[in-house]
Structures are given as structure tokens and as C-alpha cells.
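PROTEIN DESIGN WORKSHEET
SECTION A - STRUCTURE
LENGTH: 50
C-ALPHA CELLS:
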């Protein structure tokens, strides 16, 4: 899904483009970079081992 980086928020994420993106992705919200970072940290942590 879309991630709202500073650059995207400034240059790309107009209300029209945001509506288009949300219509085409499973998660119906724009993710924040901190959410992606937390996921990456969890994936490399021992807690994620099967």
C-alpha cells in the first residue's frame, strides 16, 4: 500500500490521488513510515521466528 513519506505528502498525495490509491489497495488507509519501520524491526527480531 501507499506510504505517506514527507515527499509524498508534499508533492504527490492530493485528495484525488489519495482516493485513487485507497480504492486500489487492500488496506484502506495511507500507512505512515513509522509503521513500516516497526514491521521491519519485528521481522528481524527473535519474536518473529517460527
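SECTION B - SEQUENCE
RESIDUE ASSIGNMENT:
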Amino acid at each position: 500500500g501507499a506510504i505517506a513519506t514527507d515527499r509524498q505528502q508534499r508533492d504527490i498525495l492530493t485528495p484525488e490521488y489519495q482516493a485513487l490509491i485507497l480504492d486500489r489497495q487492500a488496506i484502506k488507509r495511507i500507512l505512515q513510515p513509522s509503521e513500516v519501520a516497526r514491521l521491519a524491526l519485528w521481522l528481524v527480531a527473535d519474536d518473529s521466528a517460527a
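SECTION C - NOTES
Residues 33-44 form the longest helix (12 residues).
Residues 6-48 form one domain.
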